[in-house]
Design brief:
This protein is 37% helix and 20% strand. Helix 5 packs across helix 8 and helix 15 packs across helix 17. It is of the alpha/beta class. It has a domain of 189 residues. The strands form 5 sheets. Strands 1, 2, 4, 7, 8, 9 and 10 form a 7-stranded antiparallel β-sheet that branches. It has a 6-stranded mixed β-sheet with strand order 11-12-13-3-14-15, sandwiched between helices.
Amino acid sequence: MFVSEIILENFRGYRNRHRISVDQLTAFIGKNDAGKSSILDALAIFFDHPLGKIDGSDFCVHTGSTGTLRIGCVFRDFPDSITIDASSVTSLFDEHLLNTQGYLEVHKVFECADGVLKKAKVFAISSHPTVDDANELLSKKIADLKRIAEKRHVPETVDRRSSAALRKGIWNTFEDLQKADAEIQLDKEDAKTIWEQLSKYLPEFALFRADRPSTDEDAEVQDPLKVAIKQAIAEVQAELDAVKEKVKSRAIDVAARTIAKLTDFDDNLASELNPNFKVDPKWDTLFKLCLTADHEIPINKRGSGVRRLILFSFFRAEAERLREERQKGNIIYAIEEPETAQHPENQRKVINALQGIAGTDGCQVLLTTHVPGLAGMLPTASIRYICAHDQNGRQVLETDEALLRTIATELGVIPDNRAKVLLCVEGPHDLQFLRCINRILNQNDSTIPIIFNDPRVAFVVLGGSTLQEWVNKHYLRNVGLPEVHVYDRDLLVDGKYKYQDARDSVNNRGDNSVAFLTVKRELENYLHLDAIAEAFHGATTAAITFVLDDDCDVENEVGAALGQRKLNRRSIKHWLNDDAAGRMSVARLNERGAFAEIVSWFDEVIQRMQQ
């Protein structure tokens, strides 16, 4: 299930009720103590994460000592059906447990009395029947449902052994259920069974805090290492059992000979002694792994930034393991201040990695930051700005033109005035393709610079933008930098290509800008079939064989060959523009008749960056 909205009421600084929209990548930005971490902590409480502890001090101090604290989530992509028992299958729609928008909205509600929180009650906020004999059916026992079924003349064909069937039969007897917003308690009677089944589909929640040590003794490091040891032991268990028996045999032999010698001193004492092993050896406690570098330097002695990167990698590995073991469909990575102790270049890599994770099917990334360097790299659509509010304590705002200006000013995100040329592409996958090809061209000819590491080139993704790009575009529109545009030509529609007019408009400006339509249909058509096959080798047993020409839809062809649209939770387009593009070479570009054309794009960029 996918979280689309978070609800907070009277939780810490969030007075009254707040509804916070989230997406696959969401970044909470604001000053220190604005309330960014509180959102992640609230989710940890909702998902019963080990770090999610709640007590009376979490109740909003501006509300008094008595009232209601509420933490909720709105879910999309919930299961179509729910099996209550071996013979009873129902759905959230049939049980009238969806809200007015057709989503599953679940609240955990804590009553606070004199500063003490009671145990949470779980509610579904739903559009539910209110008419007599149709309301509150989920809280009724089966005997009561049978009585109402008789009263409402529910057909005998309806299974009287199934509460779900009885409820549906009763509801079907009404012409108008008079549905209205209601709170349906999910932790009692039959609703409890539904909630228990739903809980299996909740996302795995993984929280990575900022204020924590980072050594190889940390749980996130030790847990995956311990799992690795257990897995290795399981693989050689037969050999270990043989060693155990051999050790036992040798030890018992020594003990027996010792007892035999003891009879020379005391027959009675010797007869009372028997060699016996108290417990079997625990192999997994005998091994302890630590991480060392090439020169046997443990990570505890490495720089704090390196330690944190390693720890973050273990955190991701452990989160993935838990998701797979618990068979959860989704996972939420909640990361506080990922920029902590990182060089700006590593900050960029971390953000790229997090964006890659967020682009993976079934993954959500929630992060917090107040650092301008990191904030500048975030997509503008992902940003949620948190600030103080007189009546509600806090407010969480989604980005618009005015807010972006406020964020850029407050955080100090400034335009990079080193830029000399703009490279404009349609989307992030196109940018990744060109990044891979640029690296290959540089390896073949060092006179071709790596433009993606050069501050003289600014990148504009026309289908979206980052905060830094937004700032730069406002700055760059006033200085008139030349632009190089690369558009997919796609297919002819009514005698024109999709971006043909846009290309012509740029080329007719007369301001040293230039635009290209690709000769082939899309950038994926510049790949070599061998590179595509190698990229998917090992990830699937399906053979990648199709006719790769200049006009085919490569993504659809690969999807048809694999029989799916995603692989290992990543889109096929991601695989093509990252993994496959990274396996290209000059020879393969030449075989595809692509080398000269692609070099011409980079030549235009290089000429302008060197002017």
